[in-house]
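re the bet — no i am not wrong, look at it urself. input seq straight from the record:
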Amino acid sequence: MTPRFRPIGLALTIAFAHPALAADPQPNPAPDGGGTVQLAPVTVSASALAVGSDQMSTPVSVLEGEELVRRRAATLGETLAAEPGIGATHFGAGASRPVIRGMDGARVKVLADGAEIMDASTISPDHAVALEPLLSERIEVLRGPSALAYGGGAIGGVVNVLDNRIPTAIPERGVEGSVELRGSTAAREAAGAFQITAGAGSFAFHAEGLKRDARDYRVGDGWDEGSRVDGSYNQTETGSLGLSWIGERGYLGVAWTRQRNEYGLPGHSHELEDCHTHGDHLHCEGHDDDDDDHDHDHDHEHGGVPYVDLKSDRWDLRGEYREPFAGFARLRLRASHTDYRHDEIEGDEVATRFRSKASDGRIELEHLPLAGWRGVIGLQGTRRDFSALGEEAYVPQTLTRRHGLFLVEEYRLGDWRFEAGLRHERQRIDVDSAARDRSHHGNSVSVGAVWNFAPQYAAALSLSRAQRLPTAEELYADGLHMATRTLERGNPDLDAETSRNIDLSLKKLAGATTFGVSVFHNRVADFIYAHTLDEHEGLQLIEYAQRDAVFTGVEGQVRQRLNPVFGLTLFGDYVRARLDAGGGDRDLPRIPARRAGLRLDAHWQGWEGEVEVYRVGRQRRVAEFESSTPGYNMVNVGVSYAGRLDSVPWLFYLKASNLTDKLAYNHTSFIKDAAPLMGRSLTAGVKVTF
């Protein structure tokens, strides 16, 4: 009989768990080899005040070092999917964004060292994030609307990916870098990456690159459609060049990055292309079952499955200057410009072309303590010129301008740390169609407190009111989108949605047992969602609408050090998302199922290993026209060895995912039935640092 567990039971089980730890960070044993361990706090770059992870009023995860090397995947969503409270949208192998506490899309902001990633991934889940995890040095995840410095719209959370594109210091030996090679079996993937930084005097130069070739991946045992997902391949090439001037009090640098992706669109169908609407209903003509579109080998090289050809050119400008003038400790600058093109190709022709030219800039000033308050004031502005042309140009050309002013302050008193943030945002969208232009504004505020009530114990409370402004797609969408099998209607009358969130955490940061728990309740007034009006053979007619919604959940993990070698971690998460009562469907679509698991880790000399077993429950709480998703058990095993060769550090890692070859479906995916999760896969890699 399949095991089951209840949400309340899960909440009680992990009532002493810790979501705020950095992806099960490894403790440092006490010098005497005793039972006391200490978790070193990590400075969180995405926090405007650059405080440690142990002092954040909302949960934060930090992936870095060997842990990040072992967990990195081809997409950002899959890289973070194992973190408590985080899932992934999963659109085949080429596109996957993080889902944080049941929220995705524009409610989860993705940053590159504090600058917004200006791609098209928030428009649709089949659009990839223009960012390469294999070249990242650290990934920070802030849950909930805690990072007002980056926009009130990030009511789900913020993902900040740190890289080395722009050097901030001269290498001690003049030159430093790394080379990494890896391969996996399920997708027959081969990937390689390099980074090198060289400098002398006041200047440093950085170059990096990556190439990945992954074929259609194999799913778990027992899928009726075969053994591999047609069109699930992913080919990526990325390169970056950066140059910095570095002085005693700061730096200023620029980098250029080009990324090319080609990946398939599994589940894409033309059977319903002639469907249209009669009022709020779908009307579809008959189809020829012998259409040649359904009688091919689905090899992308032969024009079977539609695929995406993505090209992104991005310029980044980053700088920091300490003590710029009296009363201020630091001036920080971030700016970027992205020229993004995304072609959806069927056969030898471009069916739809998405173009986006976008700029993002922000400047921050950190002032010295004033009456005990230390804080940051900043300005941010973004501009995006977006267009879609072709068969599925369901969004008209739009020009979006957004400006924000923010202030974040902290005050420390004994064992207490208090934090407050305020942001005002204005947005204007000009549309090249008969629809009217729209302007919106929003105000967001947050307050939080952290109480270190005992050595290495901390309790944190955060309250926030954040407003998210509607996107151009939500306002003006009008047309068929076969990748997600939807016919979409925008709503130009949408207003800003308002989130009122409370987050309570408890942490223990040292000792043989380290733990934490976070519970949250997020009530969103005028929540914008895709309301399904009608459905025909899997095609849904959706219209963006507003209605109050409630998100409630718990997430966490606890680690028990068993002896100097072994440790055991219990982790889990659960989120309940529903619309307020008042007719229509109550449950929101594509909400992650509950999850709980155990992880046994081992550390001995240069060796590290882990065995992870977790259960994802069946998702029965579904929206109208949405199907439930069966639960599954997952087993993962990994081992790594860190050594030196003539003083050159190197790391070898080996991991087996889905060891039992379980056929599993991701409920958050639009194409869960057409693209199940990957089956048993063995990944091996080596990284040399010099």
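see?? Residues 7-689 form a domain with the Maltoporin; Chain A fold (CATH 2.40.170.20). told u. also Confidence is low (pLDDT under 50) at residues 1-39, 287-303. so pay up
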